[in-house]
């Protein structure tokens, strides 16, 4: 934890681990700074989980109410990737609490369809499976994304 405290300049903050039964890809902490500001720190054990988290937070920004990224630590040899983000009010819903009706209403309010979410999730997954690595070159990702958009039509 000390590594992340130093990298994010949070030496004086308190870190409280958040236990969540659906958490599978990251260890999550609620961070409280001395001034009372609350943040969330997600430490991802796998590189792919880190890059997916960062990608989807950026992708859904402006489309769904997602937290803004405050900073991140890229994964390195011996260091897990981490994303520091703002803390949104409320709690994480349980999967069984989200009915089809609620999902449809959320989609309508946020102007994104279930099909769009599935499409972009599959696209990202295809990237990991077919390429077996993260696309490093942004131009290559743009070209690859354009190919998938054409296939979607």
Description:
This protein has 153 residues and is of the alpha+beta class. Helix content is 42%, strand content 20%. The chain contains five helices and five strands. It has helices at residues 2-7, 47-60, 100-110, 114-131, 138-152, and strands at residues 14-18, 26-32, 38-44, 69-73, 81-86. Strands 1-2-3-5-4 form a five-stranded antiparallel β-sheet, with helices on one face. The protein is globular. Residues 128-141 have low confidence and may be disordered.
**What's the tally of helices?**
5
Q: Biggest sheet: strands, sense, closure? A: 5 strands, antiparallel
Report the strand count. 5
Assign an overall shape.
globular
Strand content: 15-25%
* N-to-C span: 46 Å
Order of helices and strands: HEEEHEEHHH
Q: Look at the structure and give the mean pLDDT.
A: 78
Low-confidence runs of at least 5 consecutive residues: 128-141
Radius of gyration: 17 Å
Structural class: alpha+beta
Helix content: 40-55%
Strands side by side in the biggest sheet: 1-2-3-5-4
List the helices and strands and how they pair.
Layout: H1 2-7, E1 14-18, E2 26-32, E3 38-44, H2 47-60, E4 69-73, E5 81-86, H3 100-110, H4 114-131, H5 138-152
Antiparallel strand pairs: 1-2, 2-3, 3-5, 4-5
Question: Key features?
Answer:
153 residues, alpha+beta, 5-stranded antiparallel sheet, 5 helices
Structure summarized in a few sentences:
The protein has 153 residues and is of the alpha+beta class.
């Amino acid at each position: 934890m000390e590594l992340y405290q130093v990298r994010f300049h949070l030496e004086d903050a308190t870190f409280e681990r958040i236990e969540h039964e659906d958490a599978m890809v990251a260890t999550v902490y609620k961070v409280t700074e001395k001034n009372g500001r609350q943040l969330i720190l997600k430490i991802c054990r796998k590189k792919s989980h880190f890059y997916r988290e960062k990608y989807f937070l950026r992708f859904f920004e402006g489309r769904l109410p997602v937290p803004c990224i405050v900073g991140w630590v890229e994964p390195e040899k011996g260091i897990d990737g981490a994303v520091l983000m703002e803390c949104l009010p409320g709690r994480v819903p349980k999967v069984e609490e989200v009915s089809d009706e609620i999902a449809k209403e959320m989609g309508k309010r946020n102007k994104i369809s279930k099909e769009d979410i599935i499409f972009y999730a599959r696209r990202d997954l295809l990237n990991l499976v077919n390429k077996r690595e993260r696309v490093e070159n942004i131009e290559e990702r743009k070209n690859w994304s354009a190919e998938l958009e054409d296939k979607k039509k």
